[in-house]
Design a protein that fits this description.
The structure is a single chain. By secondary structure, the protein is mainly beta. It is built from one helix and 27 strands. Helices cover 5% and strands 52% of the residues. Strands 3-2-1-27-26-25-24 form a seven-stranded antiparallel β-sheet.
Length: 363
């Protein structure tokens, strides 16, 4: 009971101190001051999920939305999309500066999951009933149009990602009993790239999850797949050159990938770093070239039964947010929220009982 009282006391105290920024002396509403990080969190009684904001130093904690779930970073024009914790057939859009909410889409016969907003704030993509992806276009922050529906494999573990330049959507689907990576172009409103995963792998273990990860330049896609013989593979596709690289990870079983800036060392050889969270619990930084892994360094340790996940990298500050959870299959993805500083190679605890943290990339 005492811990719960302290939790809500801190929330209320921070809300009071930040409320003074909402109006000037004339009483005219002013834009709210953005936090650097937004994340999901439950209170200590685990009653509901809420969206909180905080700065990287652990200061200015604020409760942003009650009974709500966040699944992607804010857009550059300071919007987030979210679901009601108790009603998953509505998708909302929230203006972080104006502190205003709009209903973006509703379908009372459907179950929505994992809504994500594009970096430019013009598109929302959401998983519908684990069988399709809805694409909602946002006009003037207030007009919402359903512009497409992509039918995918009936598997809740198939995720999707929007490119950093807000032009493309990467996801996996099943065609004729084969798994494909597809890329949908928002402006052309059609699939512009399709790749058969079996081209590089003998026999895929389809019980594993499939997630694509974009590089910051939106030209490279990474994903990992497991073969039925237990082999683990990291695939990189450079879209502009249709160049495919397959890296054998041997005994490294990957849970997530977090690409860092691609670094060009010479005209003929690309060397780049990626963060990975391994299924053994820790976070490693891998350095790769076009042929092989040339360095593997652990940057965040995990104790027994601990797992690091939900990696989110800030390209400006070169810091990464991540969670440490006690159960990898934790349905709410809750654990302790940490920051890894790639400049100092130090890890810092930020908040407890938290979900994934998302950086604000201001325009």
């Amino acid at each position: 009971m005492r811990k719960n009282w302290i939790y809500w006391f801190l929330i209320c105290l921070m809300s009071i101190t930040t409320a003074c920024n909402v109006c000037d002396n004339s009483g005219v509403p002013q834009d709210a001051i953005l936090k650097e990080i937004y994340f999901n969190s439950k209170n200590l009684n685990n009653e509901s999920m809420n969206i909180l904001g905080i700065n990287a130093e652990g200061t200015n904690l604020e409760e942003v939305l009650y009974n709500s779930m966040l699944f992607s970073p804010p857009s550059k024009n300071n919007f987030i999309t979210y679901l009601d914790y108790y009603n998953s057939n509505r998708i909302y859009l929230y203006n972080l500066k104006k502190k205003s909410t709009r209903l973006a889409f509703e379908d009372k016969s459907s179950f929505f999951y994992n809504p994500k907003i594009s970096d430019n704030g013009k598109y929302i993509v959401v998983n519908k009933n684990h069988v399709s992806l809805l694409i909602i276009k946002i006009d003037n922050d207030s007009i919402f149009n359903l512009v497409g529906e992509i039918h995918t494999i009936n598997n809740e573990f198939f995720d999707f990602t929007i490119s950093p330049n807000s032009q493309k959507l990467a996801y996996f689907t099943n065609l004729n009993d084969k798994i494909f990576l597809e890329i949908y172009d928002f402006t052309q409103t059609k699939v512009t790239f399709r790749y058969d995963l079996n081209q590089e792998i003998n026999k895929i273990d389809e019980s594993d999850k499939f997630i694509a990860f974009w590089s910051q330049d939106s030209d490279n896609i990474f994903y990992f797949i497991k073969e039925v013989d237990g082999s683990n593979n990291l695939i990189k596709i450079m879209l502009s050159k249709s160049q495919i690289n397959n890296y054998n990870l041997n005994n490294i079983e990957i849970n997530e990938i977090c690409p860092i800036d691609l670094i060009i060392n010479s005209e003929s050889l690309n060397t780049f770093d990626i963060f990975i969270s391994a299924k053994s619990g820790e976070i490693s930084m891998l350095t790769l070239n076009d042929k092989e892994i040339i360095n593997n360094r652990i940057i965040a340790e995990a104790n027994q039964n601990e797992f690091c996940k939900n990696l989110n990298y800030n390209y400006n500050t070169k810091c990464m947010l991540y969670n440490k959870v006690n159960n990898l299959e934790n349905i709410d993805n809750l654990g302790n929220l940490y920051i890894f500083d790639n400049n100092t190679t130090q890890n810092k605890y930020l908040f407890s009982n938290s979900g994934a943290g998302y950086w604000v990339d201001k325009e």
